[in-house]
Every structure is written in structure tokens, then in C-alpha cells.
Design goal:
Chain A: This is NAD(P)H-dependent oxidoreductase subunit E. The complex is a heterodimer of chains A (664) and B (647). Chain A has 664 residues and is an alpha/beta fold. In chain A, 38% of the residues lie in helices and 12% in strands. In chain B, the strands form 6 sheets. Chain B has a 7-stranded mixed β-sheet with strand order 2-1-15-14-13-3-4. In chain B, strands 21-23-22-25-20-24 form a 6-stranded mixed β-sheet. Chain B has a 5-stranded parallel β-sheet with strand order 7-6-5-9-10, with helices on both faces. The chains are: A alpha/beta (664), B alpha/beta (647).
């Protein structure tokens, strides 16, 4: 950590943005004005380095305020946090949403991932290119680029505009008609290049993004619009979505909110863990690891402090369930995290939300602030003596950060690179301390468990898959959206609940589990949507993605998009994944350009097997799943070689980005 | 104004050289050895053995150092043997020996990793002791707090929890003020003070005037920061006090060391696991050279040359009486050249022309010698003055033997390469010279020499080569092959039994004495010197390697002074002291404050920093005050400033 700084000074606005996160500098050594006493004395060391986890928030602050992170701004952040500039550069350049080159304040993210591509995003791409020039332009008021899944698949095709300023603002167009897009691609609103306040420290904004959308853009539909049968009496997890005001704590409490926490505090931590274990709840992020066991293992670690991490980095293409929960019922996430923190003995929880979810972020920031105000978070939760608080951390466009150890690195202020396991997070997780990391949907399931009791919850669903489940249905069905069904329904039941296929269309294939999942054929709709049912059918539920491709879909193009996604999102840390994802994409591109598929398939198999066997995390291990299932299950490339596939077939059941990781 | 390399790499010496008609010319080994031996013989015959001096090499093996002092004491019969140890840590050895009876650092690297507080005083180990600093970093990662006391905000200081930027040469006021604060806050370890120390009442009286305010006025460090360090050090359950040349390269260096030792005595931070006093040694074997007796006042194993009982076994083994008086230190040897008291000098692997202060004086003194023999792997500036130059092997890779590191750990060194054709092993050369001077040593192997060391030095007795290999090194003391001593020294001080506790450790009653070279209107800047990360000492060994960080010699200057002088980064200025003047480019850095400037001595070909330094020396240890010269800085005319004055 030899610190070599530049002599370039940040602008007043950049300085203000950084200080809004870190507070004013203490001395000339950490970015303030050089004073006489500084020449004789300096504080630093542990106190300075212990704030390393504020690196990402500081980078966000500048990016949100100015639109990009200049060299002097990066340098200033480094001085403030005692981080070598080269290291901070490595972090900033890891994340797609940060720009280290000057760029316009407004950036339009156009989703071109599977569901949006199937819904016609390529026409929108041409429209944007016509208006704004090629993607990634650095001139003008607005720039754009293609984005991986934005988590708005139920209303594909989707586009998101983010505009830096004080405060930053956003707008969404989904489903995006060309006219909607023009509004997003309009000129950035009048600049705010001056500092907000004369003394350089603006009043802290309660939320990162302002409440008003960008001028000209249509207001975004309510979160409940993503739930076609919102208000259905059968809903457990979604019961408040569309029926309460997501910004009102009073509404939440009037609808039964915080009853679960009260019950948990009566049960005591061990009692909570017992109920959760009895409920049979398993992780909904894709790995299906028993939640009770994870909590038990974390709670019993002698090392401390313990941490809770809520993984809201929902980035698996086709997945949007956590967004709907966070947007439509944010207090339930906060309450569930409080219960989880209580159970595992954590005093601090981190909620790590992906950077592309501005509305969910705003609703959660509001929820945390209100909960704190009412004593539902803080030093004495509900007067019980239990101290717990939540810090929200925002990702910045990196799928890998949803991996359960990469998320730690990102929160700690490093590149989001997965760690080798063991040690497992329950032993050495966030900041090297015992950590329970749970997906949003998993946590929200804890509320009904508290209220119903574990055994009653376990009675819902099937023997091997208990409770209700959210399914993210997108693609060619009549009413795409988020559906809550008890475990046990079949794929056909789900598609029928969504109104079936439009007239004249048939199901060509269904992608289960997202990009890291696998395809099943249109004639396999009787597969039960349970963990054991999917496993028996040689596929996976993953995070609950059900992406229906009708008979008009171009499957090869879909595979190319999946391969491009993994190539782009590989963190590059381990060779099998870094090289393998590139080779896989190249091969599929050759096929789509007309090369002989029979010649490419053996290569794809070999590359896929190397990634599966030798990558250190789930990303590389599952990057070949969809391609493999297209070859073997859909018979996409016709009469494939069966010779080499024997031993590979055995592991086909694996299928989501974390399944292999959490199995201990 | 950046340049990668100022000095071309030296070529290895592979042929002996002798001086004829003022010029060095190649010669055969026979001729060179004959000439070398003849010169020494003549000197001893005409002026007595004390006209001979030996400078031994702190980078060579223990075995070589042992043979060098044996050559001096047995073949010549004088105690005039010393090494560059004198220019760095002799005061540490003297200070520690005065307090505890032996002169090594008291702790081990592993203990630095397992302590609660690390104080680094007058040192920049991040640059100068990077290996040791790795251990510091492990300690820091394990939770230890780090305090750095240094005039400059060094790279080391950037890692620290607190940095105290004192005025150059005000270490004693700072230490005394810390001591006084500890006493007044009631944080002294009374039990330890009562049992294990002496002179406490005098110490209390000594530090009483050094209130926080008085210390702030003298040192420039805010009173609150001094108080903070005092409380942190006294309250820490374990604490390491580490120092380097910022303490020892002063005219009152031994006093500086004593003032730090006082703090450990006051708080009981010595003689326990994790608590100790550590001078950080700069050369791979600067510890071992002293341990082997290659110093004028001690025989191998720190045995006092003045003690007849200590001398007796050596005399019995070597069959010759050893003088019972201290020999000359390196510094005294150079002074004795002026008096023509010292006539012949045997220099092994040292380069005093460029490492001693006041280059011109050093050169003049070496020229005044009747006979100068330099044994080295390169033709250094010192070797250029020699009557005979003997090409040697590189100890660390071309010979077997042992080294002793800063934590007193003796480690085996194994020969990996043959020396280049024509060069010979140091020990072999010394044996050949000894034979010519009438003492037949044949050619003992390194292990045979080591076993002789073990037979004469009790604290090395347990360290057979086999055991050193098996245990990957052993720390001294090691009295027997059957046991290992604790990793720290002086645990006796904690014993309940007065007999076992032994001699109490005396507080050092030392007063403040500001730097000799006073600042005034003509010389308003305080110049201090040190090392940078990628270069080593006079650059003989490192200059040949390129480094992306190297910018050549630079004068580090604060932005405030640069603005006042109207000079920009990279611009060449003239730096003048009361002794000399050099041209050097400026590096403007926030690590400096007004009135303080910094240079290294890595690039003597480009800028001879030692022209500026003062040779005021510590009367006890003989170390020169490299750390504090008074200089003035002047802009150079525009046309001259465009190019570096590199030769």
C-alpha cells in the first residue's frame, strides 16, 4: 500500500459527492487542505483502512453525481480511504456501471438479453443508434449501451435511463415502444455542475434517486403490475404487493407487518432457527440449501461479530421476483432481515442490491430510514434489547457479485471475485467473519414461517419442496409476470395460469433457471416444478425462471446471447472460465454463421466440461449448462455425438449458479 | 528529468591488481599476495602491530568475519578490527550492552507479529527493511497498532495509526517527555522498575523538566500526540520498540538508544514474549560480524576484550596472547591516519570512500597510508586507491557459511555458484596471506571454522551445522545442542529470584544535545539522509539493476519550500553545507515540511551527498551524524539547470 497520488485536484462537485459519503476530511493527509499541524502529526492506519468498505459507495457517489469518475476524483477517494490508486482503479474498472472516461450524464441501458431479444429489442437498438450514434459514445448529452437482463422481463423489451445529478434520477420504458425510447434518449436535464451548498456539504438526500422521473418519460407502472393475479387470496409471499403503499410503514403494519418479528423475539434465536429448520425452507436463490442449517451453522460460530447479508443482486437473466418484492413490499425484506440477524447473532446486516434497480433501492432506503425512525432497527429493536441495523450497498453492474462469496468482496470494497471454499461463509464470510447470506425471497419466506409455525409451513407444497414459490414467467405466454404457486404445480399448470400461448403459437422450448439453467422441450410440460421433480427430470429450478420460447424463437441466437453473457460476466480470475466462456461463444458464433455444427459440438463439450470441472465458482461451472441442454435435450444441432457425452450426462442435473457451491 | 540508470554496472574483478608507478596493473595471485603480505609485514616491523587496521565485511559470512578478526588478533596482533557496522548500529549494540549486557535486539520477528503495539522510531523499514516490514504488516493485520516517529512522513508512516513528525535530533526530548508522562499518569510498571532496574530516581529527576509543553516546543510534535504515544505504549500489554538509523546516525547516538531503552525499562516492555527492543539491522550479516568479534572491543560471543578470563580460552586456542586493550573503531582508524598512527589497512568488502562522511577527507586519509589492500568483488572507489586489489568471491552465493540476521538467528548459507575464474574465496585469501606472514592455517572448511567459533563462544555452542540445517536456523543464545532458548532475550529480568535476575538494567541518564551542525541564516535547511526502496547504500550492488522507481539522486523538498524558492519538481538546485556543495535535482513531496530536506547516498557518481554531511561522531560508538546537516539551497541559472550534472 504505497500511496502515490497525483497532483490533480478534484472539482468541488466531486469533492462534495465523496464527502457526502465519507464526511469531511480530517486533515491534509486525507484530502483536506494541508495545515501546519499536518506536518507534525497524522492519524491513519486501522481507522483509515477499516473504512475500505466505503470505496464502492464513494465511487457510486461520484458516478451518481457527475456521471463518471475522473482521475482526480478517484485519487481523492483513495486519499480519503488510504487505498492505493491502482487498487481503486482495479475496483472501479471491474463494474460495468462505472465509467472512468468522461461520458454524458444520462445513460440509457437497453436490455438485449433473452426475453427482451425475443420481444424485439433489436429494432430498439437500431432506433437508439440512429438517434445517439454507436453505443458507448462519449459526446453529447446522452449515451447508451446494450445491457444484460434488467429484471423487467415481464414487460419486455425494457430500457432504463439513469441520469447523474443531485439527486440522480431514472426512468424506465417497458415495454418500450420506439416513442418511449425517444423520451429516454432525450437530452439530459439542465446541468447541475455547481456544488449543492456553498460550504461544500449538501444536505444528505434521504434516497439515492429522486422521486421524480426524468422529464418527458412516462411514469413507471406500479410494482404490482408485474403480478397479473395481484390481490389473489392464495398469495402468501405476494399478499401485500398491490394492496399496501410500499412507502408507508403504517400501511405495512396495518397489513400484519412486524407481527413476525414480535413472534421471533418471543421465540428467541434458537427458537427461530428451530422453526425455520422445521419448515423445510431451502434457499430460493438457486442453491436450495436448507436455511435452518445455514443459520444454525452461523449462529454457533465462536468467532465474532456475525454478519447477515441479504443477496439482492438479482442478475440471473429472466429473474425479477426479488425486484417485485423489494419494490412492492420493501418492509417485509427489512423485517425478515431483522429476524435473520436475530437468529444468527448479527448486529449488522448488509443488503446488497444490484445497481440496475433504482426503484427498489429507493423503496428500501425509505423503508430502512422509517424503520430506524420507529425503533424497528437500531440499538433496541422493539424494546427487546436486541441491536440490529442494516446498511444498503449497491452493486454496479456485475452479475458475478450475486455469487455468495463475490458479494463479500464487493461489499468490502474489492473486485467482486469469488473466493475458494472452504472456508464457507458460515465460518469466514464478510470481513472474514461468520456470515449468513440469503436471497431476498428466502428471507421473505421466514415471515409466514414465524406466523404459521414451521410444521404448518412444511405442510404446504410437497415433501421435498415446502412452502410457496415465486416463478418468473416470461417469453411467449399471454400474461408474463410473477406467479406465486405452492410447490407441486407442473410447468403446464404455470403456463396455463398465465393464459397459455397466444393463438397459433406453440412452445418450442422452456429455459428453466435462467442463463445458468437448462432447456426443456415443449413436450415436457408435465415436469413438476419442485426441486425433486426438476432433478428427476434432469433439469433445475434455479431461481425460478421460466422463460418460454415459442416456435418463432431463434434458439441458436438465444444460445449465442447466453454465451456472450457469460463471456462478458466472467470475472476473469480463473482460467477455465475466463478462456472457456470465450471459446464457447466463438464456437456458437461459427455455428450461427453457418459452420458445421457436428464439428463444433465435440469442442463445445470439451470446453464445457473443463469449465464445469475446474472453475472455482458457479458461474464457470454452469456457463455451459444451457448450451449442453440445447445439444442433448433439444437436439438443436441434429444427430449429436453421443459418444463423448456419457460421463457428462451424469452431472446434467446441476443447473444453477450456486448449486454446486453450497452443497457441502 | 528522469533517468533509469546513473551508474553502469560494475564488472566483477577476476584478476589481482597491484600499483606500479602510480597505476594499478594486473598481476598474478602470487605476486599480489606477496606484495600484500610484504606491505603488512613492513608496517608491523616498523611501526608495531597497532599501525595495522582491518575493515571486515558485514555482508560476508560469520566464518569470514571470524577469520578476519582472528587474522587481526593472531597474525598481526592488534585489536584494530571493525566494520561498517560502525556507521549504522554500533550505538545500538553499545546502548543495549550497557543496559542488558549484550547488544542484540531482544525479540524475534514472530513476536512482532504477535504484539499489541509497534513503535518504529527513526526508521523507514518499508523502504530500508522490507523483509522486516512484512512481519510488521502481519502484526498490523493481527491487530497491532503502529506508531511511527520520524521527521518525514515516510512510506512506513503512511501505514501507521499515528505519525509523530519530530524535529531532526530531538529524539531524547521526545523520549523523556514520554517517560515523564508515563510516570505522571501512574502508568509505570513499578514492580519491574523496582526489581529489575537501577537508577530510577535519577531517571525520574532527569525527565521531570520535559513536560509535554516543553517537548512540543523542542520537538515540534503536538503535546496531545506525545501524550497519546506515552499512554498507548504504557498501556499496551505487549509492545515492540524498533529503531533504525534515525536514532543511531547522530553525534549522541548511544544516548538516543539509551533514552528509548529507558521507556522499555519504565514499562516492563522487555524480556517477555511480544515485548522488546529491536534495532533493525541493515546488512544481511551486520549482526553476525559483531557477534564474531570483528569489532575492536569484543571477542566472539560478545566477550569483553578487557576481561582476562574471557581472553584466556582464545589465547589458549590460538597460542598467542591477545592485547587486553580496546582496538580502534573504524572512525578512530580514520582519525589515526591523520596522525600517521595507522599505516596499513586491509579492507574486505567495504567502500568507505563512498560510505563515510566527507568524501574528500576520507580519500585524503586513505592516500596517506603506507599500504592499502582492498579485497572485493568489484573495483570500488576505495579499491581504486589501493596498493593491492584482491578479487574475492561473493560470500552469499559463492561460499558456504552462516549469516546472523536481525533477530539473532544464525542461518546456513550454501554455495550455489563457483566464483568467476580468477576470483578466490575470502577465507582462502586470508589463509594465504597468513601463511606468508608466518602463521600456517592451511585451509579450514567453513564448518571447521564454525566449530572453532562454537568452542570459543558459549552462546553459539549449541549450533552445529547439522542442527542449523534441521531447524532452519537457531537464535542465539544457544548454549547446548539439547535445548532451545526462548525467542526473546533477558527473561531473567522477570525472575522472582534475585540471584537469577542478576544485574539490574540501569536507566540511561542522558541529556539532550541538539545536532552539531547548527541552522543559521546562511544554512537554514536541515538535511537528513536515508535510503530509498530500490537502492542500497552506495549503489555498488544495486546500481547495476534497473528499477522503474529509480529517479537517481534527488533532494526531497516540501511544496511550501519549493514555492518559496521558486523551484519546480525535477529542477536542479545547488545544495551547500559548511563542508561542500553539490548540484541535485529537486523532488517536491508532501512527505517533507518547511525547512526539512532529504537525500540518499545511493548515487555517489551523480551526486556525492557525503560532501555535505558532517563527521561529528558519537563518542561512545563512533557513528557519524549523517542524519543532520545544515544546508542552503540555491536556484541554478536557467541554462545550467537544463541537464543533470551527472558525470
Amino acid at each position: 500500500m504505497d500511496l502515490r497520488f497525483l497532483d490533480e485536484a478534484p472539482t468541488a462537485v466531486e469533492r462534495e459527492a465523496v464527502d457526502s459519503v465519507l464526511g469531511p476530511p480530517e486533515s491534509g493527509w486525507d484530502g483536506g487542505a494541508r495545515q501546519d499541524v499536518d506536518l507534525r502529526y497524522a492519524r491513519g492506519g486501522h481507522t483509515a483502512r477499516d473504512r475500505r468498505d466505503l470505496l464502492m459507495p464513494a465511487l457510486h457517489a461520484v458516478n451518481d453525481r457527475v456521471g463518471w469518475i475522473s482521475r482526480p476524483a478517484l485519487d481523492h477517494i483513495c486519499r480519503r480511504l488510504t487505498v492505493p490508486p491502482a487498487e481503486a482503479y482495479a475496483v472501479a474498472s471491474f463494474y460495468a456501471m462505472f465509467s472512468l472516461r468522461k461520458r454524458p450524464r444520462r445513460v440509457v441501458h437497453l436490455c438485449t438479453d433473452i426475453a427482451c431479444a425475443a420481444a424485439g429489442s433489436s429494432g430498439l437498438r437500431d432506433r437508439l443508434a440512429e438517434r445517439l450514434g454507436p453505443p458507448g459514445g462519449h459526446d453529447g448529452d446522452t449515451t447508451w449501451h446494450e445491457s444484460p437482463c434488467l429484471g423487467m422481463c415481464e414487460r419486455a423489451p425494457a430500457a432504463l435511463a439513469l441520469e447523474a445529478g443531485a439527486p440522480a434520477r431514472y426512468a424506465v420504458a417497458a415495454p418500450a415502444a420506439p416513442g418511449d425510447l425517444d423520451a429516454l434518449a432525450g437530452d439530459a436535464s439542465p446541468g447541475s455542475a455547481a456544488p449543492v451548498s456553498a460550504n461544500g456539504h449538501g444536505a444528505p438526500s434521504p434516497t439515492t434517486f429522486g422521486a421524480d422521473p426524468l422529464p418527458g418519460a412516462a411514469p413507471e407502472p406500479a410494482p404490482s403490475a408485474a403480478v397479473p393475479d395481484a390481490g389473489s387470496p392464495g398469495h402468501v409471499l405476494l399478499r401485500r404487493v398491490g394492496t399496501v403503499d410500499p412507502l408507508s410503514l403504517d400501511d405495512y403494519r396495518a397489513a400484519g407487518g412486524y407481527a413476525a418479528l414480535r413472534r421471533a423475539l418471543r421465540l428467541g434465536p434458537a427458537g427461530v432457527i428451530r422453526e425455520v429448520s422445521d419448515s423445510g425452507l431451502v434457499g430460493r436463490g438457486g442453491a436450495a440449501f436448507p436455511t435452518g442449517r445455514k443459520w444454525q451453522a452461523t449462529a454457533q460460530q465462536p468467532d465474532g461479530p456475525h454478519y447477515l447479508v441479504c443477496n439482492a443482486d438479482e442478475s440471473e437473466p429472466g429473474t425479477f421476483k426479488d425486484r417485485v418484492l423489494m419494490e412492492g413490499d420493501p418492509f417485509s425484506v427489512i423485517e425478515a432481515m431483522t429476524i435473520a440477524g436475530y437468529a444468527v447473532g448479527a448486529r449488522l446486516g448488509f443488503l446488497y442490491i444490484r445497481g440496475e434497480y433504482p426503484r427498489a433501492l429507493r423503496h428500501l432506503e425509505n423503508a430502512v430510514a422509517l424503520a430506524r425512525e420507529r425503533g424497528l432497527l437500531g440499538p433496541d429493536v422493539l424494546g427487546s434489547g436486541f441491536a440490529f441495523d442494516i446498511e444498503i450497498r449497491r452493486g454496479a453492474g456485475a452479475y458475478i457479485c450475486g455469487e455468495e462469496t463475490a458479494i463479500f468482496g464487493s461489499i468490502e470494497g474489492y473486485r467482486g471475485e469469488p473466493r475458494t471454499k472452504p472456508p464457507f461463509p458460515v465460518e469466514k464470510g464478510l470481513f472474514g467473519k461468520p456470515t449468513a447470506v440469503n436471497n431476498v425471497e428466502t428471507l421473505v419466506n421466514v415471515l409466514p414461517i414465524m406466523l404459521m409455525g414451521g410444521p404448518a409451513y412444511a405442510a404446504v407444497g410437497t415433501g421435498g419442496s415446502t412452502g410457496p414459490k415465486l416463478f418468473c414467467l416470461s417469453g411467449g405466454v399471454r400474461r408474463p409476470g410473477l406467479y406465486e404457486l405452492p410447490f407441486g404445480a407442473t410447468l403446464r399448470d404455470l403456463i396455463e395460469a398465465a393464459g397459455g400461448m397466444p393463438e397459433g403459437r406453440t412452445v418450442q422450448a422452456v429455459l428453466l433457471g435462467g442463463a445458468a439453467g437448462a432447456f426443456v422441450r415443449g413436450d415436457e410440460l408435465d415436469i413438476p416444478l419442485t426441486f425433486e421433480g426438476a432433478r428427476a427430470a434432469g433439469t433445475t429450478l434455479g431461481s425460478g425462471v421460466v422463460l418460454v420460447l415459442d416456435d418463432t424463437a431463434d434458439l441458436v441466437a438465444t444460445l449465442v446471447r447466453v454465451a456472450a453473457f457469460f463471456r462478458d460476466e466472467s470475472c476473469g480470475q480463473c482460467v477455465p472460465c475466463r478462456v472457456g466462456t470465450v471459446r464457447q461463444e466463438e464456437s456458437l458464433l461459427r455455428i450461427s454463421a453457418g459452420a458445421d455444427a457436428a464439428a463444433e459440438v465435440p469442442l463445445l463439450r470439451e470446453v464445457g466440461r473443463a469449465m464445469k470441472d475446474a472453475s472455482i465458482c458457479g458461474l464457470g461451472q454452469t456457463a455451459w449448462n444451457a448450451v449442453e441442454s440445447a445439444i442433448d435435450r433439444l437436439d438443436l444441432f441434429g444427430g449429436p455425438d453421443r459418444a463423448a457425452s456419457d460421463d457428462i450426462q451424469q452431472s446434467t442435473a446441476a443447473g444453477d449458479r450456486a448449486a454446486t457451491e453450497e452443497a457441502r | 528529468m528522469r533517468s533509469d540508470d546513473f551508474s553502469a554496472p560494475y564488472d566483477r574483478l577476476t584478476r589481482p591488481l597491484v600499483r606500479d608507478g602510480g597505476e594499478l596493473r594486473p598481476a598474478s595471485w602470487e605476486e599480489a599476495l606477496d606484495r600484500a603480505a610484504a606491505g603488512f609485514r613492513r608496517g608491523v616491523d616498523e611501526h608495531g602491530p597497532d599501525s595495522f587496521g582491518m575493515l571486515s565485511c558485514a555482508r560476508a559470512t560469520n566464518e569470514m568475519n571470524f577469520m578476519a578478526q582472528k587474522f587481526t588478533r593472531v597474525v598481526v596482533g592488534t585489536n584494530n578490527v571493525d566494520s561498517c557496522n560502525r556507521t549504522c548500529h554500533a550505538p545500538s549494540v553499545a546502548g543495549l550492552a550497557a543496559a542488558f549486557g549484550s547488544g542484540g535486539g531482544t525479540s524475534s520477528y514472530a513476536e512482532v507479529e504477535d504484539t499489541d503495539l509497534i513503535v518504529i522510531w527513526g526508521g523507514n523499514p518499508r523502504f530500508a527493511h522490507p523483509i522486516f516490514f512484512q512481519h510488521v504488516l502481519k502484526g498490523v493485520r493481527n491487530g497491532a497498532r503502529l506508531f511511527v516517529v520520524d521527521p518525514r512522513r515516510t512510506s512506513t508512516a503512511e501505514w501507521a495509526d499515528r505519525w509523530l513528525g519530530l524535529n531532526v535530533g530531538t529524539d531524547i526530548p521526545l523520549a523523556h517527555a514520554i517517560g515523564r508522562e508515563i510516570l505522571h499518569a501512574g502508568l509505570a510498571n513499578d514492580t519491574f522498575v523496582r526489581r529489575a532496574t537501577s537508577g530510577f530516581d535519577e531517571y525520574r529527576a532527569l525527565v521531570e523538566p520535559w513536560t509535554l509543553a516543553a517537548a512540543e516546543a523542542e520537538t515540534g510534535v503536538p503535546a496531545e500526540a506525545i501524550r497519546e504515544l506515552a499512554h498507548a505504549y504504557a498501556r499496551a500489554e505487549r509492545a515492540q520498540m524498533c529503531w533504525t538509523l534515525g536514532i543511531t546516525e547522530h553525534h549522541n547516538a548511544t544516548d538516543n538508544v539509551r533514552s528509548l531503552i529507558n521507556l522499555a525499562l519504565l514499562t516492563g516492555h522487555v524480556g517477555r514474549h511480544g515485548s522488546g527492543l529491536n534495532p533493525l539491522r541493515g546488512q544481511n550479516n551486520v549482526q553476525g560480524g559483531g557477534d564474531m568479534g570483528a569489532i575492536p572491543d569484543r571477542l566472539a560471543g560478545f566477550q569483553d576484550i578487557l576481561d582476562p578470563e574471557a581472553r584466556a580460552p582464545f589465547e589458549a586456542a590460538w597460542g598467542r596472547e591477545i592485547q587486553g586493550t580496546k582496538g580502534k573503531t573504524l572512525t578512530q582508524m580514520f582519525e589515526a591516519m591523520d596522525e600517521r598512527e595507522l599505516r596499513t589497512l586491509y579492507v574486505i568488502g567495504e567502500n568507505p570512500v563512498q560510505s563515510e562522511p566527507e568524501t574528500e577527507k576520507t580519500t585524503r586519509r586513505l592516500r596517506s597510508l603506507d599500504h592499502l589492500v582492498v579485497q572485493d568483488i568489484f573495483l570500488t572507489r576505495t579499491a581504486e586507491l589501493a596498493d593491492v586489489v584482491l578479487p574475492a568471491s561473493a560470500s552469499w552465493c559463492e561460499s558456504d557459511g552462516t549469516f546472523t540476521n536481525s533477530e539473532r538467528r544464525v542461518q546456513l548459507v550454501r554455495k550455489a555458484l563457483d566464483p568467476p575464474e580468477g576470483a578466490r574465496d575470502d577465507i582462502e585469501i586470508m589463509c594465504d596471506l597468513a601463511t606468508r606472514l608466518g602463521v600456517d592455517w592451511s585451509r579450514p572448511s567453513a564448518e571447521e571454522i564454525w566449530n572453532e567459533v562454537r568452542s570459543l563462544s558459549p552462546m553459539h555452542r549449541g549450533m552445529s551445522y547439522a542442527r542449523l540445517a534441521e531447524l532452519h536456523g537457531i537464535q542465539w543464545p544457544s548454549y547446548s545442542e539439547d535445548a532451545l532458548e526462548p525467542s526473546y532475550l533477558h527473561s531473567r529480568l522477570w525472575s522472582e529470584d534475585p540471584a537469577e535476575r542478576g544485574e539490574p538494567a540501569p536507566f540511561g541518564i542522558v541529556g539532550h544535545s541538539p545536532p552539531v551542525d547548527l541552522l543559521d541564516e546562511d544554512f537554514p535547511f536541515r538535511l537528513t539522509t536515508g535510503r530509498r526502496l530500490d537502492d542500497y547504500n552506495t549503489g555498488v550492488q544495486t546500481g547495476g539493476f534497473s528499477s522503474p522507481l529509480r529517479r537517481g539522486e534527488l533532494l526531497d523538498l516540501s511544496p511550501e519550500d519549493a514555492a518559496k524558492l521558486g523551484v519546480a519538481d525535477g529542477e536542479t538546485v545547488r545544495v551547500t553545507s559548511r563542508r561542500g556543495s553539490v548540484l541535485v535535482p529537486v523532488s517536491v513531496t508532501e512527505a517533507m515540511r518547511q525547512g526539512l530536506v532529504f537525500m540518499t547516498f545511493h548515487f555517489p557518481h551523480q551526486v556525492d551527498t557525503q560532501l555535505l554531511t558532517i563527521d561529528a561522531t558519537d563518542p561512545i560508538a563512533g557513528t557519524a551524524e549523517y542524519k543532520a546537516a545544515a544546508v542552503r539551497i540555491e536556484r541554478v541559472e536557467e541554462h545550467a539547470g537544463s541537464a543533470a550534472p551527472a558525470p
